[in-house]
Design a protein that fits this description.
CATH class of the largest domain: Alpha Beta
Shape: elongated
CATH topology of the largest domain: Rossmann fold
Number of helices: 18
Largest sheet: 6 strands, parallel
Structural class: alpha/beta
Helix content: 25-40%
Number of strands: 13
CATH superfamily of the largest domain: Crotonobetainyl-coa:carnitine coa-transferase, domain 1
Low-confidence stretches: none
Strand order of the largest sheet: 5-2-1-6-7-8
Length: about 400
């Protein structure tokens, strides 16, 4: 593998989305990521819908650029295998509920004892302390507990709404990938590994605070009830579809007025300042909506572009793939997977021009690389066969099957 993370070995003990995508990002950037799974079962995401060739879409999207090793970590022999692997690694990432890895004997203290330079990232839902720390967690719970549902609703008075994607999981993955690289950078300077803790709760609150918790930033100031700024959002219906238009500065507002054929709005006392446009937001957006219904999206977008007003069409997921900007940027790439067949995926988001990563490898079959990985860390073929016969590791049949029911 090439890329900025080339030469870094990561042991991925994670399942579902947040941990696996964090390590997947680093795998795409060149790290050697070894996904450790339960023999004969694997990550639950393997069994999800949207399937091809016994591989789920989410699994192939989140777990590409990895190798798979199946080990029974509930046995002393399996833990011994993991420790031998970790002794050769740079990073371990786990997203078990707090306390589980310690009971298994694979917590930070256990694994740093065999590798003092180890970077060990523990991911959790609610953190490792507090009344909710030991509870099961899913994305919707974090959206609820962080107030993200009321942010999405538009005000504290409206019915809370979930964001229709697993945003807390994905945010946690990005924060985790950044934390791992920061810890590795610190190790380069200090020569020491460390234990890093990250919770979904912390990740989302940190994310929200930048722009959605302004009223709570100054604790000595009174906090008003968060009321909706408008009953209209910034998605406008046109004569044949939907577009969004954003005007933040006075210049952009004036340019939009001209593009829409209503320069008289520029002189309207309600709209001459940003404060006025916010105060009379409903009146302003209603005027805009009435005008935009008179022409189709393409015509309006051309006029708005001519006047340098930020605007974009509202696209379906199918339309996104065919959009000329997406195609020009070569964001969507196709590849061939030995089991799932032809894949269409988004490429690695960051483009490294000096340390160019190889094209992402397809997501692994369950235990596909057992013999390869174990031989790399010193196991003989007879020892590997013995581990398989004792069901400490999975078998070739597991890899062929992909996932068991």
């Amino acid at each position: 593998m090439s890329g900025p993370m080339s030469g870094i070995k990561i042991v991925d003990l994670c399942s579902m989305m947040s941990g696996p995508w964090a390590t997947g990002i680093l795998g795409d950037q060149g790290a050697d990521v070894i996904k450790v799974e339960v023999p004969g079962k694997g990550d639950h995401v393997r069994s999800l819908p949207n399937r091809s060739g016994d591989m789920s879409a989410m699994f192939v999207n989140v777990n590409r650029s990895k190798r798979s090793l199946t080990v029974d970590l509930k046995t002393p022999e399996g833990v011994a295998v993991l420790k031998k692997l970790v002794s050769t690694a740079d990073v371990v990432v786990q997203n078990f509920r707090p306390g589980v890895v310690e009971r298994l004997g694979i917590g930070y203290d256990d694994l740093s004892a065999v590798n003092p330079n180890l970077v060990y990232l523990s991911m959790s839902g609610f953190g490792e302390r507090g009344p909710a720390s030991g509870q099961r967690v899913y994305d919707s719970l974090i959206q609820a507990l962080t107030g993200l549902t009321t942010v999405q609703a538009g005000s504290d008075e409206e019915r809370p709404r979930l964001i229709r994607t697993i945003l807390p999981d994905k945010l946690s993955a990005v924060f985790a990938a950044q934390a791992i690289t920061a810890a590795l950078f610190a190790r380069e300077r200090t020569g020491e590994g460390q234990h890093v803790r990250l919770s979904m709760l912390e990740a989302v609150l940190s994310f929200l605070w930048a722009s959605d918790m302004g009223a709570y930033t100054f604790p000595d100031q009174p906090v008003p009830l968060s009321k909706g700024g408008s009953f209209i959002d910034l998605i406008y219906q046109t004569g044949d579809g939907y577009i969004t238009v954003a005007t933040n500065s006075n210049g952009e507002w004036q340019s939009m007025c001209r593009a829409l054929g209503h320069p008289e709005w520029i002189e309207d006392e309600r709209f001459t300042t940003a404060v006025g446009r916010s105060t009379y937001i409903n009146e302003r957006l209603e005027l805009i909506q009435e005008v935009l219904l008179l022409k189709g999206s393409a015509e309006w977008l051309a006029l708005l572009d001519e006047h340098d007003v930020p605007a974009a069409p509202i696209l379906t997921r199918a339309e996104v793939i065919e959009h000329p900007q997406v195609k020009a940027a070569e964001i969507i790439v196709e590849s061939e997977h030995p089991t799932a067949g032809r894949l269409r995926q988004a490429r690695v988001a960051a483009r490294f021009l000096g340390t160019v990563p190889d094209a992402p490898r397809g997501a692994p079959l369950l235990g596909e690389h057992n013999a390869e990985i174990l031989s790399e860390i010193g196991y003989s073929s007879d020892e590997i066969a013995s581990l398989a016969s004792e069901k400490i590791i999975g078998t070739e049949q597991d890899a062929v099957a992909g996932v068991s029911a």
